Amino acid sequence: HVQLVESGGGSAQSGGSLRLSCATSGYTYNRNCMAWFRQAPGKEREGVARIYTGSGNTYYADSVKGRFAVSQDNAKNTVYLQMNSLKPEDTAMYYCAARAVGCRDFLKAVYNDWGRGTQVTVS
Question: 37, 44 in Cβ contact below 8 A?
Fold first, then answer.
């Protein structure tokens, strides 16, 4: 399994920025694809961004395209989510997740490992 620990959440003003980090450790072959999900109160958990760790290809939900950017630092075993032009509707708990095979979608069931989340609040 891969251990995932998120950090960097907090409060921001509308239009502001935050950068989330996801530190990974453990069996690295299980992190073929790294993703960020979020869950707002009363809503389902949704995929936001993902990165295929082999190629560096990135994919985004329509709601964050052009505002969020996912990246990785292999030397630090860390994945980042840079969030710009934040909106109140971005308020949610943000989770990092890893999957061992493929990187074609945000299907939650195929993500093997999850972090505990970090809260982002935009006002």
Answer: no
Beta strand extents in the chain (DSSP E only): 2-7, 10-12, 18-26, 33-39, 46-52, 58-60, 68-73, 78-83, 92-99, 113-114, 118-122
Query: Residue 26 has what pLDDT?
Result: 81
CA pair distance 39, 18, nearest whole angstrom = 17
Tens digits of per-residue pLDDT, 67-81? 999 999 988 999 999
78-83, strands of its sheet edge to edge: 2-7, 18-26, 78-83, 68-73
d(CA 48, CA 2) in angstroms, rounded, equals 20
Residues whose CB falls within 8 Å of the CB of residue 40, separated by 6 or more in sequence, listed in order: 89, 91, 92, 93
